[in-house]
Every structure is written in structure tokens, then in C-alpha cells.
Amino acid sequence: MTLLIETDFGTPSSSRTELVGVEIDGVAVSIPADTSIMRAAATAGIDLPKLCATDSLKAFGSCRLCVVEIDGRSGTPSSCTTPVVDGMKISTQSDRLDRIRQGVMELYMSDHPEKCATGDECEMHGMAKQVGLTEIRYSGRTHLDLPKDETNPYFTFDSTECIVCNRCVRACDEVQGTFALTIENRGFEARVSSSGTSFIESECVSCGACVQACPTGALTEKTLYTIGTPTRSVITTCAYCGVGCSFKAEMRGDELVRMVPYKAGGANEGHSCVKGRFAWGYATHEDRITTPMVRELITDPWRKVSWQEAISFAATGLKSIQSRYGVDSIGGITSSRCTNEEVYVVQKMIRAAFGNNNVDTCARVCHSPTGYGLGKTFGTSAGTQDFESVDHSDVILLIGANPTAAHPVFASRMKQALRKGTQLIVVDPRAIALTRSPHIEAAYHLQLLPGTNVAVINAIAHVIATEGLIDREFVNARCDLQSFAQWEEFIRLPVNSPEALESSTRVPAEEVRAAARLFAAAKNASIYYGLGVTEHSQGSTMVMGIANLAMATGNIGRPGVGVNPLRGQNNVQGSCDMGSFPHELPGYRHISSGEVRQIFESKWGVKLKSEPGLRIPNMFDAALAGEFKGLYIQGEDIAQSDPNISHVHAALRAMEMIIVQDLFLNETSKFAHVFLPGTSFLEKDGTFTNAERRINRVRPVMPSKTGKSEWEVTCDLSKALGFEMDYTEAAEIMDEIAAVTPTFSGVSFARLDQLGSIQWPCNDANPDGTSVMHVDHFVRGEGQFMKTPYIPTDEKTSRKFPLLLTTGRILSQYNVGAQTRRTPNVIWHSEDILDIHESDAALRGISDGSWVRLSSRVGETVLKSRITSEVPAGVVYTTFHFPESGANVITTDFSDWATNCPEYKVTAVEISPSLRGPEEIHEHVMGGDMQLESIIRMANQIAANVPTGAAPEYAVAHHIEQFWTPVMRQRLNKEADRSRLLPIVLRALELDVSGSIVEVSD
Amino acid sequence: MTATTIYVPRDSAARSVGADEVALSIAKEAALRKIDIVTVRNGSRGALWLEPLVEIATEQGRIAYGPVEVSDINSLFDADFLRGGSHPLALGKTEEIPWLARQDRITFARVGINDPLSCLDYEKNGGLVGLRRALEMKAEEIVAEVTESGVRGRGGAGFPAGIKWRTVLQADSDLKYICCNADEGDSGTFADRMLMEGDPFTLIEGMTIAAVAVGAREGVIYLRSEYPDAIATIRQAIDLARANGWLGRNILGTGKEFDLRIRVGAGSYVCGEETAMLESIEGKRGVIRSKPPLPAIYGLFGKPTVINNVLTLASIPAILADGAAAYKSRGVGRSLGTQVFQLAGNIARGGIVETAFGVTLDTLVNDFGAGTLSGRPVRAVQIGGPLGAYFPITSFSISMDYESLLSAGGMLGHGGIVVFDESVDLAVQAKFAMEFCAIESCGKCTPCRLGSTRGAETIQKIMDGDDLGANKKLLLDLCEVMTDGSLCALGGLTPMPVKSAMIHFPEDFDSRTERIR
Q: What ipTM does this complex have?
């Protein structure tokens, strides 16, 4: 293996398709019109000298090394800025050109260090040699005494090596879109500047684009100084968010020197963010646990043991629980941070070795409503587009997502489109950065009250339906007309008008109308959304409302349109695809289907249960009810990340055997009996699937620090439980996935290595994968419209809790922070902060930066305040990256009616000044029959929300049958206080819901 | 008896030598003597050596006195100058002053005649005739007329204006711009300023004709901050033009639309380069853009844009009014029409000389200019601003037109002529050229950014007598890299004064210690 140097064509490719013919140094070249001479030459294998040109940036023409001569034209134009013209004859070599190039390099080298700090990393000395420069005859003023800027934790700016080629400035502007860098002064004094301040104090977001663009040692990763020049590269995939950036892991021996974004990466095309580019140090952090550990009681100290002992300890514990409490008393949670292969074997172990369907995944708490909503309407649980699609959008509707913080690399791409003139409508309670930032301003910011998404989407659709803006041609050709007619009748009701909903949403009706018209009038309109859509009591309803809007305006099935969930975790799409949900086998096929079960039963050689298993919150309820005693948790810190933490902690304490597989001891491991050390993404061999259904290879760049792959450990446990899983390498697992999952049938490691990445579905019909879905018809055939009545959440403000808390993420930290807190990223964000509007703060005598007590009906915590206009009055906001801040102590166990995705985004709270700070926190005590309470609440919520026509009780019964375990159904039927159940639930109970399982088709 | 009209220029060159005080003193003295006068602050006639030039409207015509100082005023009144009385400062009828009478004024026809902000005077003296004619023509016909006239870009590049206009006319865009480059930064040039201060409506009319010709609705005048009087005058003129319906949504009642605004520069020479000017107007750093794309296709805010110099645009009304044939009947070869020369530096009779192309340098410097102000012999003349070539007196027979100057290793530039007497050291001047470039370089391209500083350093070494042969060779090598390798004319032309100095005045580059002067 060697260091991979990607070809740099000097300028971006032309968007034109017609070819022109030119002759370069006598070589005939046929190339798209508007291509630069430089790029045309590069495609013909002629490498023109260049310093200011790189193919990720527009041509600039400053270094003057790439000059050429053109027959019939005077002068020596720069080849990077001169486009080819048909019939052009170009010479790249002549004595005159040599003299110019040598003269330019002589000037450069007269103000450049004789030796660069990082040695051959600097292109300058190589270029001097290339153009034949032998002597520097000048002497005079230089910039060689300028100080270095070392303030950024990851890279150094050394102005003495800077050649003022502007590549960093242009990368910050054109690629990242932050505009943090500039050139100060002019002429000889022109210098790159982070806008007059140090890098760390500037607007810089440390995406690394400038470092990557720099042709000299002026901007250099610090690891290059401390570790040395890399000698080999491995192409792999970032393990942070759902964008799924491809990186070259550049290694020196077994040591990672730097992660460089890979230009051929389908998702990121050579761009990166601070997390993927720099914040990988956690992988080798001293906190890493690399030896298995066990303990009898969670109050005991951990005991380091062999793998064999740990597996045997765990297996014995699980078997003992099952013998005492029944086969359904244990379960497991898969991780969206792990590979498809690792997830697949965990769900397989649970279904085959545990013998039940008690498998769930952390997608439960993020995008489960996406699966439900898009499954119902389109027929598949995934975004419809690739990221490139955004380049073709005329209008973007962005709902409940903050891409610049949570999906930075995609945000840069979106910003590029916005700067070219794409219009933006933001639906968000907060003034996120995209509403207004350099060279970007949203056309409309519908600043709704948290919890009123469905009201807003209905109001938008109402305007479109009542103002004659529906794309009837599309609807007639592509959608189920009966469902459309019902939906149209519903959405036209005056109750859905912007005027009627204004008092709930707080969005002025005229703004909604104007935004709706803008969206409907666009040639290509797309919808992007995040957890601000899903993490609500009506999360699934909202997803269906989004799908309705896209269908009604004909915005499905081509580039530039579509419904695009921005996935939170690197493999949340994949973990869902891999059958991590209790009711679904891999490929989103319901467990009740005998036909589907048959495929797996014959492959695995085991009989599968036909009933859905427990969801994560159901597991907690069941644990508190004494029915659920053992849990295998693959890489998820539920004791920090899940809502109503007191409830979660009580449930975990009620269990007898908790097995945690993770990199670090975390909040959850405090309740664990077995700790199985996991592997970082740098040690994994497998695949991640990103938000655009793109399956990317994850390749091990260093040996496992635990001595085992995670899937091996799972297989060992499965074997100890009596079910053999026999794989010799990860590729075999993917082969099995392909064999049992029609949408993956064409996928294999070999094919991935060949194509780089594949967007599923990949099968005989789409052998290279599918970039845009639902092109000629929907996966389910005709698009299904769903009625989406707005039902306000039960989590309402009151006199006691008059404010609404909503939560989110920031750029430098990631989710529970287990990784980013162990990197220098803490320099930007070292604690969670509560954002408060000025008026709410003033009313309570809270000053900026002071301690604030935050309480909800389930708990309280203390945070530092920040007074800001980013949140409107009546709304407070915080992040949940630090365990000590306990944001999830506050959040309630209210959840989406269809999927139980927690309602993280709406919690009624009160704030008050706190004098003593964190010492003031009181733990809340749990009491009562939590499981039965949950069952009653969930049943009533389903009845209130289930979208249906004449006989809602059938829909309620069907829903409960599809997603609830038999025990839960039984408790609802037998134990629930009937006076507390809605009439529809009672009618549903009269139907035979706890009886035999019916086959469900969707 | 009706009041006598007295003209005292408001031009800032006249003001710099006391025109305001003179006007005030005349008014005071008239009041004291109970004489009724009307003072008109006209533009300057361009004979700067006669400023402040006071004119009296008499029945015989305008009689001139100058240069007038405050101390002269009593004696002027005593000499009954209000009726054209004789006085040592009397110059006779203004239009008969030989220095003015010998000129052929087209672009500057109205400058100095009237109150620059009088709409009435403007129309009375032939204003708007060109625009009215243009409004009756098809766009293609206007462009054809301008092309036919042969008028070339007066900013320095000399590109045929009609061809540029045609490119913009043919560009398909909902939005097009007319940009007037009034960033007159060349040393020894002042014609743009004098026109804007003395006859602003002509520029506005020229821009409006351009707009009608190419289909633009918006225009910008990029004006340097060093010209506060010109800024104020143009601002008022735009307001007046708008109020009179010469600009706005319904130009002269034709339903055609064009409006103008001013963008004031921030003191950067390179912003006079057209692409840097566009960047500056857009609110960005004044940095050169690579061409292609040409501004005519991708100009201001990415839209097709006509960029012309003040003098180019100010020539247009006359071309439209009198026809292309009248304009192109003047001049030589491909240099047609008139050029507004500006005589400056060490010169006895400096100012504006507008005359047909083809006049000799000798005529300009020695006849019009009357040699140096110091009285010492002329040694060198720099033509075309700080990037223009230095010529010795042996070149004085040269015909002043684009092609002749080019073949002599120089350029016409913006028509500025700066005269030096025998005390000049051309090595110092060559070093100054490099230093000027170093200060004004935008810093984008390497040859200009680094080359200018290295050039100044190397010339200093030559002046110090360090390794003369090697450093002269290095300087010539550098000049070639800057000429061939620079992105724009600033870096590309800086070698012109340097090399011309070395060619024509080689003795100044020999070792100082051996030099006898």
C-alpha cells in the first residue's frame, strides 16, 4: 500500500456536454466545451505547472505558472482561466514559457523558506525543480519573520510559507461557505488573514478545507509535525453523522497521521467538517477499554477477564434469566454507529439465539417516524434522493434541521446552491444559521412554536390545494386517487387554513401563504428535514404530511426534488435496513409475513417468532414491571441519550444482566454487568449506509485494539447461547445480507470496491444502485396520500411550566459526546448551555452566563445561560452532549404515537436563577405501574392520531397488532382502566386484537 | 443698466489657485462700488496656466483676464474691466486666445462655457441633440454609428467602443449595465475630472445613449474619492437630469428607462482596471478578475456590462449629434477623432489640449506647453501615466496616435503628458515606477505582487553600483516576466517606463560614482 495522490485536473469539470476538439502539443483532445485548457491538457496526460489552481475551486489565474501559447493569439494566457475553443492549437512548452515560469518561481522562492518545516509536503521546492529553476538571484525584503498562528488545536498557519495563492480563501468561500478568511492589504504586503484575528477567534469552523487546499506548508495539520509524513493511505468512511464522508486515512506505519477527505467520495466529493477531518483522536484515547470486564452486582468493582470468561459469564446470565422469566425476558439494542455487518449479526443473534424479536435500535429515538411515514406513503423507509440533487433545486423547504451544525458537509453543498440562487424556506422555532449567514438569506423563516409542525405543513398544503396549485398531472399519473381525494377534501377544510392555525403556530398566515406559493411555483422543490420533524408526538404524521406535500406538487422522482431526511448517525439508515426494528426483518419486511420469515428460517436454520418484540421504551416499562431482565446494548449510551432519564435509570437498575459493548465506560455501563470492549471505526471492516442510501466501505486502517472484531464477539456470544454463527470475514456477512434482502441483492464488498459506493436498491434491475428513487412509479406502486390531522401534544405549557424546551446539537460535539468530548473539540464547546430569549430572562432576573435551574414535570437540572435572539420568547434551547448537564433528566417519556420516537423537541419547563449551581439538583423518584401507564397513554395517542376514514377502530387495532408485543396487548385488554381509554380504543378492543396474528401486507 | 455677467471657474484646479477668493472679492468690490453683477461659476477652459481666468460677458463677446489674483481686483475695476477695459492681465476675447483657438474641441466643446449645472444652458449649447437622435434610432443603428465613427476607448486600451457595445447588445440578459470608469488615477491626467466638473450632463447623455444602444437600464459611475468636487457636481447633475426626465423611467417621454448612481472608490489605483473596478462596485476587495470572461459578457454582478472611460462616453453625444463622418474626418490611420491631451509636470503652459490625433509631441510640449516652467531644457517626457514610456527630445517628432506610440515602445494611455527638465534622474524614475506598482498592486498575481518590490530593490542595487551587469540583466529578465506573466496592465505595463528609461537614458543606469552631473 502506498500514499494515494489523487489526480488534480486544476479546474472543475465543465457542465457542458457538447464536445470540442483542440490540439495540445500536437495531441488531439476532445473535451466538453468550456473546459479549461489546463484541464483539457491534464486529461491528455499533460501536466501543466500550477500552484493556485486545484480542481475543487474555480480558476483564479494568479500564480502565472500555467501560461501557454495559442496559435493566432498574442500573449501568454493562463491555461486555467482560458477555456478551450474548437480548433484551438496550444503549446505548453517553449523557451518563452520556460522563462516566464522560471521567472515566477524565482520570485516565489525569493520569499520562501529554503527548507519547509514538513519537508516534501510543500509543493514549492518540487515545482521549482519542475520548471528548471537553478538559482535565486534576488535578495531583499521577505516575510520570513512572521509569527505562526498555532491557536487552532488541529492545524498551524505559518505565514512564512504562504504564497498568497488564495486557495485557502477560495476554499473557505466556495467550498465551505463560511467566508472566514481573506487577504489583508495589497501588493507585497498582501497576506492571508483569518479576518484580522487569530484562527481560533475567527469565524473559522475548522472544516479543514483551507488546509487541504494549501499547496505549501502554510496551513498544515499539526500531526504532520508531531508524527511525520504519511506513507500509505486507506480509503474509509467517517463514523460521525449520516452524511457518510469518504476519507483517505493517511498512515505512517500503524499510526494515523491525518484524515483527508476523498475527492471520489460520493457523499462529500472531497469536503469535510471538523469532526470527521480532525476529531478522531478518541479512537486511541487512553480511556479506551480494550479488555473484557465483568461483575456480579453493579455496585461491585469491575473485574478484567478473558474474552472466553466474559462471553461465558454473559451467556450464563442470559440463559438463567430466560429459564426463570421466560424466553421474552431478554433483548438487545443495535447501534447506528456500528457497521451493517455488526448490526446484522446482533439482530440475528437476538432473533435466532435469544429466540425472540426484542431487538430495537437507537433509530427509535431519532428517525423511526421517517421509516413509518415514508413507508406508508411511498413504500420505502428512506430518503428519495442523493445529495447531489440539491444542486438542481429551485426552492428548498428545510424543516426542523440545522445542517450547518449537524450535517456540515451537506450544509456546505446546500449553501453552494443557495448562493447560486436557490430559494430557501426555513421552518424552525430557532433562527438557525441558514436563515441568515454570509451571502445567504432564507426567503421565509416560518418561526413556529415547538410542537406545531403538522399545523404548519397542513397550512402550506391547504394554500396549495385551495389556490389551485396542485400538480394534478403528477397526482393523476402517479398517486392513488382515492386517497388523494380524501386527503384533498380534508386539507381544504377551513380548519387547516393558515389563518385558522395562526394562533397555534404563531406563524403569520400571510407568510405561510407566501411560502406555500413559492414552494408550489418552483420547477424543482425539495424538502429536507431532521429530528425537528420526527422527535414529536406527531412525528410520523409530520413525515406523512411532508410526503403528501411532495406528491401534491409533483416533486418526486427526478433530481432537484424529493423528501430528504437528514440522518443523524453514520449508519442509522443501515441499522434500520438491517432489520433492527422489533417488527421488521432486514429490508423492512414485517415479521408476521410467513413468506419472509421462511427466507430467514431456511437460511439460519431456526424457527422465528411471528410476533413483534419490544421497542426500547417498552423494554424499560417491561423491566419496571419485572418482566424484562436482560439487555445486550451495542454501542449506545441509553442512560444519557434517552428521554426521562430517571425512568431509564430505574429500568436499568431493575435488570439482572446488562451487557454493554462500547469503546468507553459510559453512563449506561454504570448499570452493566458485562463490558465487552468494542472497536473504533478505524479498526472496523464493513459498511456504513448514509442518508442517501449510499453504502460505503469502512476499511480497517489499524488492527483491532481488543484483538477481536465486534461481529466476532457477537458470534461468540451467540454460540455460547447455542446458536452457531460462522463467518470468517465481514464480507461473508454482507453476502448473507445480499442473499436474504432483495434491495441488497447486488451488493458485495467486491462490487463496492469496484464502484466506490452503491445506493440501494441494488439488484438485477439496478445493478449500479439507485440515485433517485420513485422515478416512474413509487416502490409501493401508487403514492398514498394520508390524512394528517393536527393534534396538539399533551406536553403543554402551564402556569407551572410556562416555557417550551427544545433540544439540538452543535457543530463541534456529537450526540452524547462520548467521542468528541475526548478530543480537542471541547475548546469550542465544553459544556451544554441553555439559550434563553432576552424577555424570558429579564422577567426572571436571569443574566447572561449565570446558572439557571431548569425544571420539567419529570426532573430538573442546572445549566449555564446564554441570552440570545436565536430562540423566540417562550422557547428555551439546549444541547445534550454532556452527561453532567442532564438535558434528558428534563425530557419526558411522551413519544410519537406511531413509533414511540421520544418527543425530545417539546418539553414544558420553567427556569429560575440558581445560586448554588449544580449542587441544587434533586433526583426524581419513579413510582407506580409505569408499563400500564405507558400502555394506556400510547393506546389513546394512537386513537387520536391514526389517519383513517370511516372506522378508526380497525386502524387502531391494526396498528397495535403490527407493533405491540402480545404481553402489551394483553395488559391493555385485561388490566387497563376502561374509563381512561378513549372510545375508539374501547371499540378496537372489541375487535379480536389479542387473538391470533393476522398477516399484514404493509 | 442690466447686471454684468462675470465668469469665474468653479473647477477645482482654478479653485486651487484662488478662484473662490477671486469670485468673492469681485462680488465684494462690486457691492462696494454699487455695481450690479451676476457671477457664474463656469467650468475651466482648460488653460490652467491662466487660472483663475475671469471672463466678462460684453457685447463684443467674452473678454478674458488672467491669471487673476485677489490683489488685482481693485485695479481691474479701476480699469473698467466690466466693459472689457484694458489691463495688464487682459487677454482679449477668450475664443481668440491662440492657445484655445488652435484646439479642436469636440469632447470639451462645452467645458468652460457655461454653468455646468444649468439644464437650460446645456440644451442651448447643443446638449441632448445626440440623445434625441439616438432615441429615434434602432439599437443596432446607434451601435453602427458609434462603430463607424472609429471612437476608441480613451481609458488607455484604445479598444473600439462600437465593438464592445455590439457584444453587450448581442448578449442575452434581462439585466445589463453601463459602467463609467471615472477612477482617473494616472499621474498627470485630469481631463475626466475637468469634464465632470465642467460639463457633467455630457457624460450623463453619453451614458444614456450607451444604455439605449445596448438595452441597459442601470448605470454606475465609479468615481475616485480624491475628486470631491466632481462627485458633488455629478450628484447634482444626476438629480437634475432625473428631475428633467433625462434619466429615469421615461427618458424624454419615450418610455425608455435608464438610471444612474455613483460609486465612490476608496483610493486604490488598480480599481481603475476595469475588472477590479467591477469587484469594487460589487463591494468586494478591488482585485483583478481573469479574462475571459469579458465584462461585456460577464460584467457587473455577472451581467453584460459596457465599461467605458469618461472621455469615451463624453464623446458619444457629439458623434450622435453630428454623425460618425464628422468625427472620423479628424485624426490619422486608425486613431480617429480628437484626443484630449493633458499637459502636466514641469511645463510652462499646462492644461487641456483637445486636438485631432496626429499632432506631434513637439507641438504639444513646445508650442502649446512652451517648454518647461523652470526654464531649463526639457530632458524627458512621460506619456500615458505612470505606466507609460519615457521619451527623450529626440523623439519629439513622433505623431501622437495609438499606433505610432506603440511602435515607438510607448502608449497613449489616457493622454497625459508629463514633462521633466534636465535635472531628472531616470533611474530614480524607473525605481519610482516599480515602487508605484508595489504600492498599488492588488496582490493577486505573482509577477506584479513580488516582481514590483524585487524590481525596486534591484534598481536600487543598480543605482548603488552593485554588480551592475548582473543586476541589469536581472531587471530585464524581471521586466519580461512582468510583461508576459502579469494578470493585468498594472504589472504588465510597469516595465514600460523602466525599459524605456534604460533604452533612452542608459547613462542614468551606469555607476553613480563614475557619472558626471
A: 0.93
